[in-house]
Specification:
Blueprint lengths: L7 E2 L3 H5 L2 H10 L2 E5 L5 E5 L2 H8 L4 E2 L7 H7 L6 H5 L10 H10 L4 H20 L7 E2 H6 L2 H10 L3 H4 L20 H25 L4 H10 L5 H14 L2 H16 L1 H9 L4 H11 L10 E2 L3 E3 L2 E3 L5 E3 L1 H5 L33 H18 L4 E2 L21 E3 L2
Parallel strand pairs: 1-2, 3-9
Antiparallel strand pairs: 2-3, 4-6, 5-11, 7-8, 10-11
């Protein structure tokens, strides 16, 4: 069958509100499509589950930006020099053997056993946040909880001290947005970028002075002993601070929206909170906040699931489209907490499987469990069509979620 008219635009309010009809149409035609983003970047999008799974494990594909061609680099490599070289050499943009070395530095700190040991502290954080909810009136669950809890839990996990954690600005996460050189928002983007760099330098200086047995101290030690370059050290901290909390913030919002759209499942969780672990897995599948993967590249022209893809063109995988593939998930548009097995790809697969998956799962379980206990009945305080879905290229979520219990 012929693909949709290409390149297929992957942007706009309607797309961000509900991308699934488009993903269904694309997946039904063929597994790989040429797509375009607001910045003018074109890419090859992989949609079906089997194709996505194979692509995430395809050793022909590399993540290093040096593999991208000049056309991609001019538009998609948005971070200017020298910042691109200083902050973009982290795990997501590395291939073996360097990727193996960097990943080994963080794995123990995100291991399931260690995350479980931190659960009581995470629960204390969540309880403190909901204790500050107003007794009456609408509550914005993003402002009051979802935008705060994941970062505070991350700070505990990586060893970011409270004095520095309170100075972190969530808006620094916008430095991963597609703001090209000609975009009128570019001056503000560069201001945020410089602010984040200064913050990372402050974190490094603090850990050099205080040491410790936490992840940030371990990374500083790895730089001191020559395992990490200074650019790699700063990039790893950049990745932790930005990618380590914003996706969980967004996943809390997509989960809550899904529950509000399915009051029967919301009521089921109120009645049976022990269902939370499997409910979280289904909510991750149903509407993953990490909608698209970051770029991958072929070193040579090659076939990719029936399409000829030139070397250096960007290739991305739609995790959301794969997780709604009816060939793998019967009745994929149904939210089903009894779904088993549930091999969703919300955290990716292969060597780039999210190292913080255990942490994210614990945060989501604690966040939803705490909110459901604090808000035994809640509903949207605005019409659903007024929800503001973030225009992020790779992620899904809402910028605000006002609810009422009245």
């Amino acid at each position: 069958m012929q693909p949709l008219e290409e390149p297929v635009p992957l942007y706009g309010p309607e797309y961000k509100r509900d991308p699934y009809p488009l993903y269904t149409a694309m997946r039904d035609k063929c597994p790989v499509h040429r797509v375009t983003f607001p910045s003018g970047v074109n890419a090859w999008l992989v949609t079906g589950y089997d194709a996505a799974h194979a692509t995430l494990n395809d050793r022909r594909l590399g993540k290093n930006h040096a593999l991208g061609n000049d056309g991609w680099r001019a538009l998609a490599s948005i971070m200017p020099e020298p910042q691109h070289s200083q902050l973009q050499v982290h795990l997501l943009h590395q291939d073996p053997p360097k990727h193996t070395t960097l990943r080994r530095l963080v794995l123990d700190f995100f291991a399931p056993r260690r995350v479980e040991s931190l659960r009581p502290r995470f629960q204390q954080i969540a309880d403190a946040l909901v204790a500050e909810f107003p007794a009456t009136g609408p509550i914005d669950l993003v402002e009051r909880f979802a935008a705060r809890f994941p970062f505070l839990a991350l700070a505990e996990t990586i060893g970011l001290p409270p004095a520095l954690a309170k100075d972190f600005r969530r808006e620094w996460g916008k430095v991963v947005a597609p703001v090209g050189p000609q975009d009128p928002r570019r001056p503000e983007y560069e201001r945020l970028l410089h602010g984040l760099q200064s913050y990372i330098a402050e974190v490094v200086a603090h850990k050099r002075q205080t040491g410790g047995d936490d992840l940030l101290a371990a990374l500083v030690t790895a730089h001191r002993n020559g395992t990490l370059s200074r650019e790699e050290l700063d990039s790893m901290i950049f990745q932790l601070l930005v990618a380590g909390q914003e996706p969980v913030t967004n996943q809390i919002t997509t989960a809550l929206v899904a529950l509000l759209r399915h009051p029967d499942q919301l009521a089921l969780l109120h009645r049976e909170p022990d269902l939370l672990p499997q409910a979280v897995e289904e909510l991750l599948r149903y509407d993953s906040a990490f909608e698209l993967t970051t770029w991958r590249f072929l070193a040579e022209d090659a076939d990719l699931h029936g399409r000829r893809v030139p070397a250096g063109d960007s290739i991305i995988v739609s995790l959301c489209a794969a997780n709604r593939d009816p060939e793998r998930f019967p009745d994929p548009g149904r939210l089903d907490f009894d779904r088993s097995p549930n091999p969703h790809l919300a955290f990716g697969h292969g060597i780039h499987f999210c190292p913080g998956a255990a942490l994210a799962r614990a945060e989501l379980q604690i966040a939803l469990g705490t909110l459901l206990a604090r808000l035994p009945s809640f509903r949207l305080a605005i019409p659903e069509e007024e929800l503001d879905w973030i225009p992020a290229v790779l992620g899904r979520g809402v910028s605000g979620l006002p609810v009422t219990t009245d």
